[in-house]
Amino acid sequence: MGSQQWSSKLGFILAAAGSAIGLGAIWKFPYMAGTNGGSIFLLFFILFTVLIAGPILIAEFTIGRKGKGDAVSTFKKIAPSTAWPVIGIIGTLVAVIILSFYSVVGGWILSYLVRSMTGELSGLSQAEYGALFESIIANPAEVLIAQLIFMVMTIAVVQGGIQNGIERASKYMMPALLILFIILAVRSLSLEGAMEGVRYLFIPDWSYFSGETMLLALGQAFFALSVGVSVMITYASYLNENENLGQSALSVAALNILISILAGLVIFPAVFALGFEPNEGAGLVFVVLPAVFNELAFGGIFLFVFLVLLLFATLTSAFSLLEIVVATLTKGREEKRKPYSWMIGAVIFLIGIPSALSFGVLNDVIIGGRSIFDFADYLTSNIGLPLGALLISLFIGFKMKKEDVFQELEKGASSTGWMNVWYFAIKFLAPFAILIIFLESFNLL
């Protein structure tokens, strides 16, 4: 892949974790846990991350390093003159659609960030926070300008390449994110009545146990680790030969679970201590959190810090989504990286305009019972990602030679005892579980 390579193992792990820990862990995990019984959801989320999403992450790392290229050319190289490269094409298209609506949420965060600096977010009632969120997302000029700024920030980093762009940014952002999250969690836990939120997150209430909760947790495990979209195939193609793939995947999965739990510890103790409802849904971060921070000493500062964090996390995911598409089109020709980054970024911005306007000007446009924004999310989350993950597990299990797969995993590995268990999980367990998600999401079960 030309001269592009990670400078260190830590750089790769932080960038891969940054890709995984975006809105998935910080925005989506708390609201999914909040609407699905807290601890039960967390329990299954951890279980499925370890048993299913984690093994697929290792599979993507294996394919990526073996192919040493973008997602499409990697499959062409490993399985020439077959239909398998379609996995890379699906992944690239899904990445484009995800980034088109992801950048809209990135824009909302920028809007809130500016308001937190001007003091507009302090001193409102909970109802006023809800009304403020509604008015921001319905304002066409504001959402489009904010979305454009977010895309320009993303392009500016990705055009710099792997070491100079993505790795350098992730090296500073990810540790900052962890440290600030711990500070926020400590602050939240010190509130009177906070223990109710801790119980909600850690003591299982079995009345919430259901097939649907399990399926939603499985879905969250996928989306939180960015598997199924070939992001990790692209990232792993920049790895050198002596990196331990199993250990790297374990580090990324562990960081992801840790940040999800921390997000829960920031949000739920404060929600319960201040008498809010955990099942606020997708507006949890934007509606409840400003109201929660408003009740804290120095709340304005904490809210500003939290929004900066959320922006960091969203940007690191956006970098990886744009990188897949740029890598696929430049095919290792580094001189093309800069112009292609800007060109592709501009196209993705244009594709995202209907999503940005779907809460205002275009809120009457409904596709399959969903707004344009929700439809784009549904299309990628419930169809694109599981389909990609299913094909990747079948590719490793039934197309690649087992000895080739094991040979790739043995490079840099200190132990090999886990490989047969992993191989069973990827060949049988993962496809079975994903098929069940599919059937459930189309109401066929």
Automatic annotation (TrEMBL):
A GO cellular component annotation in the UniProt record: membrane
SUPFAM superfamilies for the chain: SNF-like
Main location: membrane
Keywords, comma-separated and alphabetical: Membrane, Transmembrane, Transmembrane helix, Transport
PROSITE patterns (UniProt xref): NA_NEUROTRAN_SYMP_3
Pfam families given in the database record: SNF (PF00209)
Keyword Transport tagged: yes
Membrane-spanning segments: 12-29, 41-63, 84-110, 143-162, 174-195, 215-238, 250-276, 296-329, 341-362, 382-400, 421-439
Record's protein name: Transporter
Top-level taxonomy: Bacteria, Bacillati, Bacillota, Bacilli, Bacillales
